[in-house]
Amino acid sequence: MELKPSRRSRLPYVIITIIIVALAILGGLAYFRPTVVETADRIRQLRAWFGNPAAHPEWQVQVGERCGAALMLMPTSGYIGFGWGDNFRPGHAHSGFDIFSPDGELNKTPVVAAYEGYLTRESDWRSAVIIRHPDFPTPRIPGLVFGEQIWTYYTHMASTDGETSFISEEFPAGTFEIFIEEGTLLGYQGNWSGNPVSPTGLHLHFTVVKSTLSGGYRNETDIENTYDPTAFLGVQPNEDGVPVCPSA
Ligand SMILES: [Zn+2]
Description:
With 248 residues, this protein is an alpha+beta fold. The protein folds into two domains: 1-51; 57-239, Glucose Permease (Domain IIA) (Distorted Sandwich), CATH 2.70.70. The chain is built from two helices and 13 strands; from the N terminus they run H-E-E-E-E-E-E-E-E-E-E-E-H-E-E. The longest helix is centred in the N-terminal third of the chain and has 49 residues, at 3-51. The protein is globular. It binds zinc ion. The site of zinc ion has 5 residues, from loops. Zinc ion binds at residues 82, 94, 96, 98, 205.
């Protein structure tokens, strides 16, 4: 005889719980959906690019071009398929630009220094170089202090199995603090990921890296240790949302 009233009195709590859970799910969907849709769009565009790069000249940037009054040169040619802050892997924000070759072939698309500085290639680096830019001369980049030291990092310049480096012979492993001009050839795009069974797909990964207090470079895989390359390279999203040189 106690059951009936007790069941009835529980009903409002059950309904309230259901409403709260439903609102939480809807809220979660509203929060995450834009990123999911954006990532799906990017992946669709990337497939279209890999299928036929020549069909999308409007998505291309050109190696060595300067977009407007940008301080850095475009480090390679291709389609900027993933930008700074993109979430194409769950729980990971991308720390730079992935620029996908228009040539569809390893060791063909040149990679150049975006800005003059001092190049280092650590002794165990197969596919990457980093350039130190002391006293970077701009007050125009959000978050950057005038005269701050920054670095630019260029990677994936090796074969799928990592055995063949595509970095210019001028910069063998162990190169330390060699001064180079902007536009200097660094090597060619490849797809070495660090693991031969999962190549990255042919592209250059380019990041603008913050310095440590002692003047070294920070770990560029963490977005917190990098700047958005957008303002340095002067690109802007076109109507498809692809970053390109606005003058082009
Ligand atoms: Zn990348």
